[in-house]
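Final report, section 2: Outcomes. Of the targets proposed, AP-5 complex subunit zeta-1 isoform X10 is the one most frequently requested by collaborating groups, and we therefore present its record in full.
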Amino acid sequence: MRHAARPGSWRRCGHCFASRPCLERAARPQGGGGGGMLATGTESLLRQASVCLILVSREVGAEELGRFCARVSALLQAEDWGPDALDALRRLFLIVAATKYSRRLEPTCVALLQTTLCSPRCPERLQLLCAAVLREMAPSDSLSLSCDHAPSSRQLGLVASVLLAQGDPQQVRTVGQCVIKVLESRQPEGPSLTYLLPVVSKVTSLAPDALPEEQTKALSKRLGDWLRYASVQQGAAHASGGFFSTPRARQPGPVTEVDGTVATDFFTVLSTGQRFTEDQRLNVQAFSMLRAWLLQGGPARPGAADADDRSELEGSTVSVLSAASAASHLLPPAEWLREKALEYCQRLLEQSGRRALRKADSDLQKACLVEAVLVLDVLCRQDPSFLYRALPCVRALRTRLCGDTACVRALLPIAQFFLHHGEAAAVDADAVCQHLFTRIPSEHFHSPMLAFEFVQFCRDHLVLFGSNLDLLRTSFPNLFKFLAWSSPALTSGFVALLPVLVDAGTAVEMLHLLLDLPSLTAALDLQLRASQAASERPLWDVSVRAPGCLEALRDPQAQGLFQHLLRAKASGTVERLTPLHQLLQPLASCARVLQCAQAVPTLLRAFFAAVTQFASGALASQLALLLLERSDSLFQVEGYEADVHRVLSSQFPALCKLHPPLVVERAKELLEFVGSLGGPRSTGHMLTSVVWAIGEYLSVSWDRRCSAEQISRFFEALEALLFEVTQSRPSAALPKCPPQVITVLMTTLTKLASRSQDLIPRVSLLLSKMRTLAQSPAVGPVHGEDDLGAVRTRATELLNLLKMPSVAQFVLTPSVEVSQPRYHRDCNTALPLALDMVSRLLEREAGLLPG
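The predicted structure is given below as tokens.
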């Protein structure tokens, strides 16, 4: 079986595939019953398997692989098909499968693998491994396999799987024709067809037009027969040949239902028995490929034209049933298959209501419910006349499942059914979606399979939501519970969903929740820890103890914050959750919280990419203020604050560019933010982006309301900040200030001075001091020569510009017409060269210029 994602570090294990059956034997109870103690030697076998997983990372070179291929070739050539060959093929499969790199085997080895695969005397297990190795080698130029080489249908299925893995369209058509010929020519005593139906399903998925229409019709007819007319008697037991064996004792009994009663209707996948006949196996396989086959067939080909003519006859359930029973044998093959598929799905829905005696049967019931409703949805889309017959059972099923938490996954296909057909069936799809988005995420957020299917459901049906799109958007706090609990698996899905979920009304609240996502994970973890049903609690990090958090969860003063964080719908309000962050701090080291924190930067980038497409000036101003406020109120998870600050620092200038007047509009908040940036906070990414935005957009050219008084206030605040970051000596509590912060502060002060020329003497004196400070030997060990060189260079450049105020104003504060094309940043224009030449002239002739 091909790995979905192969880790790049996996190479080879010397024992792993040999020890995998050992693990199965170790975990198997002694004796034939369902209980009992583990087999003797379990501990040693588990230890051996763990060693195999460690050895998997060992690199296998080409020379070693060649020696191993030679050993495999020797065993296969001698037809030594015992345990040694089985073990060697398992290891070979691991080598070629558990790596992302392509492996090339010796041509002799590949040829022997093909010979062994087609040998009529070779054991089945070896042939399975040979086919698996050859599939992993695809695409391969050294294959000489052909469907004509397979002596049995089982081997034909294996050979076909290898050929289909090559990805050659012509090969796919050839395989499809060969398999169809076997299916058409099969006699009652001929080979089994159970190995060939999966091949047909794969062929039609790879090349829908690979089979001619006549063959498609014939197979559709046979699929309908297998679905409806499989035997209701169990398979006959093999005669033991013992003294007491009699023909009467070997007579097969009828199949039973999952609740143990004798089946009174036709056989389905939910029918149970000790042994099964071939047509019963074909029944199961036909149902497994039914939905894909129907989708490949598309709408009704022969009968679609007269569907409208039959609509009056099929307007009621009674008339439809009578018409179908009278003329079912006259239906074309495609309609015949749909008719039998409808009956089959209705029978499955009836069987799913029975109380299963075994857990395995109960799980199968849930899976069949999902598949049956999906097939009904396809049938009603292809032929609307089926809707009147399918609707009553789907309605009854939804009523039954709304209160059954065990079958919650089946509510997703039911919702899909009503989204597709609610209007035609006069069913309120809003009520279905309301229940779906309100209760399921809140109660089942810890189910990883349900979470993945729920997100996929939302992505696949965005077009169908229509008026329900507002319901989807206002339910984002509930959807984020899935994301908070299973962030590694769902991050890519939510990146695709965020552009649809966010709008002007929910953007601010959604950004708050994204920043609080790790604390939401901790709150959900705490909620599960406080659950009374201990047997239903999912696994969590048992190394984290949080007795104080559990007490805080019951504290009336904290319950309001918990309820706000765990809300099901958008409330339109925001709460300061800093007290809650302190209560949840013991859970900050949980692995699940750490994983969620790692996903937040990616989600934030997707959020801002979507918001900037429609944000108005007022919304951009709100979001910019939110970034300032939340930069120092994040849940304290290791590395989380630094990662988030990197994203926010890149988005703050983008919001200012989207709405440049926000710097003037939020002057008070920006001054407060800059004034509070002392100590350790003066080294962050947010400081650099905020200071740059002030220097870039605090100008009359961007907003006529900008005054000289405002420029002076910002100048004084930034001047004090620059003095603080350059005079403070680094320590454990106060890391050294990076040169980017110093150079950005100097540049912004120079920009402000060029717009209010009364400030030029002050900034010139400041820049001279900074250049002198950067040349001082006392600061060399603290900042490093490269950092000091960058500060000296920037101070010199700015001083040279200020010697000609008009040039400084043009360069540092260009008009909108000039700044839009950004000529001074374009290397293909002459402006950078001219500036560089002027700078060099000023440096060389500094003594001749006034000032």
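Residues 1-43, 48-57, 299-326 have pLDDT under 50 and may be disordered.
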